[in-house]
Design goal:
Structural class: alpha+beta
Number of strands: 8
Number of helices: 5
Strand content: 15-25%
Shape: elongated
Mean pLDDT: 92
Low-confidence stretches: 214-219
């Protein structure tokens, strides 16, 4: 499978390496991954599980929040028994451990709170089949221009074509900025503008196709 660099060069007819540089293209790919994931799950919440990763915590060190949290559960003396954790105010994290408090949480009705961008459970995760388990949206922030669509982590292949398309748009925008500032060539700028507009239209139309079925039905009814 062609690398992202090869795909972007094929889409744009640019020679990647100067403007944009390889590093800039790699950043466009990372940024594109985040945008595509966020736009898809905003329009299609049912697609969230396709972009998630599950993490365990067994010593109450907390699990870092990296994206939208889909589920938080805690084991109850067995890997097979998972108790749903409901959110609690971090200011009540002590009261939730106090058996005399109305806010007390036991193994049967555990809770979780987020503090300093980390998720903690109450009762605290303690190993020995009492781990905290969090499933959340995860973005592949390690993509580079040498990678291909097959290498995107936690990302379904059916949407992977959007990543090089996003990077192609950003690459053309970078080139157009260079021509505008350095070359002062209005004809080249105009040509790039047309290409960018065409790619942006294709990019935006893709999200219309991905839109929820109910939304598309409503649009058809209105027309």
């Amino acid at each position: 499978m062609a690398t992202f660099k090869a795909q972007v060069q094929g889409i744009t007819s640019l020679s990647i390496g100067t403007t944009p540089t390889d590093d800039e293209l790699s950043q466009f790919l990372v940024d594109g991954t985040k945008e595509v994931v966020n736009r898809i799950i905003a329009g299609r919440p049912d697609e969230i599980p396709k972009f998630t990763v599950s993490t365990h915590d067994s010593n109450d060190s907390g699990i870092t929040v990296v994206g939208q949290v889909m589920s938080v559960v805690r084991e109850h003396d067995s890997e097979a028994i998972l108790r749903r954790c409901s959110p609690i105010d971090p200011m009540l994290r002590y009261e939730a451990t106090d058996t005399d408090s109305l806010s007390y949480r036991s193994k049967y009705n555990p809770g979780y709170y987020i503090l300093d961008q980390k998720i903690h459970s109450i009762p605290a995760s303690a190993g020995n089949d009492n781990d905290l388990k969090v499933s959340q949206v995860s973005y592949d922030t390690g993509l580079t221009h040498d990678d291909s669509e097959a290498g995107i982590e936690n990302f379904p292949r059916e949407y992977s074509y959007l990543i090089p398309l996003y990077a192609a748009i950003k690459s053309l925008e970078a080139k157009m900025a260079e021509y505008t500032i350095d070359e002062e060539d209005p004809e080249l700028v105009q040509s790039l503008s047309v290409n960018i507009a065409s790619l942006k239209n294709s990019y935006q139309e893709s999200f219309g196709i991905i839109a929820p079925r109910q939304e598309r039905r409503e649009e058809r009814n209105e027309s």
